[in-house]
Design goal:
single chain, transmembrane helix, membrane
Length: 119
Amino acid sequence: MDKLKKTAMWTGIVVIGLCGVVLLGGGKIVSGTLMVTTAFLMVLPYGPRKLPRWLGVALLCAVFALVVWNISTTELPDPSLGMVACGDEISDLYSPTGIEFVDQVMYIFSGFLAQAAPS
């Protein structure tokens, strides 16, 4: 059981860090920095705890709430204009689904892929 807990913990840390990198590449600097910092703080060695576990969980939930709020402030391109933006690499990868939050996440991810693509 201990091995399963450690594997789950390290998987969560890696996923949080990778999400932070995607957010940084997609232009959400504050959210990406929060996620990467959270991943680094989770890696710190465990010694005598100065904070109760419930406080750590509450702080983690607060970070995720800030990230979700920051993602929800992403402005999507106007669908009535179509995909006419000149030189907009994001528009080639982004297609709206109708669910606003999912569209915002996909738009950020498309921005990350546009930044990561070789020129």
